[in-house]
Specification:
Layout (H helix, E strand, L loop, with lengths): L2 H22 L13 H21 L15 H21 L16 H23 L9 H13 L15 E7 L5 E6 L5 E4 L8 E5 L1 H8 L18 H9 L4
Parallel strand pairs: 1-4
Antiparallel strand pairs: 1-2, 2-3
Helix pairs in contact: 1-3, 1-4, 2-3, 2-4, 5-6
């Protein structure tokens, strides 16, 4: 996907998130983020948006803390969220393609590409959370964007040493998107997961098969690992439980 596609997605998803949060009310519980209310969701995502915009807009080369969040609720908190979201979209849209700044995933194509991609997925996943709080089903994402989000999760986040997805014995999980044809083979061990794009020789200990949008939401732990393409319910599979228990990323 092109950088402008990610920026456009970020713009749209932030609006959808704000609308869902407003519908739910800032005191509503967020079932996909235990112990959070919509207030926490808006404060977290609003801080992340400002944090990201600071790196790109300020060309900051070293990691720093999230900005403080205001003790706002209700309409004032929604306005604060919308303000930060709009500023991030504007910063990414206006930044030069060769801007240099800090990034934190090993798969970043460029600093601008990294932040546009990361914030598009950050906001989409938290839009799922806002819609869950408002009691409506997640609205759709495109197969291409969903495939990219699975790829970022597997080859980016869970390639890092801080990933807690570990197995005492070597195990293989194969993930297949039926609508885009994308395949990932994830090798689990006592080390960080190693993901290979494409099918590899040999059987898998767990096959997760479904449309890219379902894989995206399920692997980001916003839907249960059920409804696989062959009709099985894999939620009780030991590796599915391992993923559910150790992979969550807020």
């Amino acid at each position: 996907m092109k950088i402008i596609d990610f920026v456009d997605t970020l713009a749209r998803e932030g609006e959808l998130m704000a609308e869902a949060a407003e519908q739910a009310g800032t005191d509503a519980l967020v079932p996909t983020c235990p112990d959070w209310r919509v207030t926490d969701l808006l404060r977290h995502t609003g801080a992340v948006h400002r944090w990201a915009a600071g790196y790109v807009g300020g060309r900051v080369m070293e990691p720093g803390p999230f900005p403080d969040t205001p003790e706002l609720t209700g309409p004032e908190l929604l306005a604060w969220f919308r303000e930060g979201h709009a500023a991030l979209v504007r910063t990414l849209a206006e930044a030069p393609a060769d801007v240099e700044c800090w990034t934190f995933l090993p798969t970043a194509p460029s600093p601008l590409g990294f932040w546009a991609r990361r914030q598009a997925h950050e906001t989409t996943v938290h839009r799922f959370d806002a819609q869950a709080a408002s009691g409506v089903p997640f609205s759709a994402v495109t197969p291409r964007f969903a495939e990219d989000g699975v790829d970022e999760l597997l080859t980016g986040f869970h390639a890092r040493s801080r990933s807690r997805v570990r197995s005492a014995e070597p195990r293989v999980v194969r993930i297949r998107a039926t609508d885009t044809g994308a395949v990932w083979t994830v090798h689990l061990s006592q080390e960080p997961p190693r993901t290979v794009r494409g099918d590899t020789d040999g059987p898998a200990d767990l096959d997760l098969t479904g449309e890219a949008a379902w894989l995206y939401a399920a692997l980001w732990n916003r839907l249960p690992l059920t409804g696989t393409g062959d009709g099985r319910d894999d939620t009780d599979h030991p590796l599915a439980r391992l993923w559910t228990e150790t992979s969550p990323i807020i």
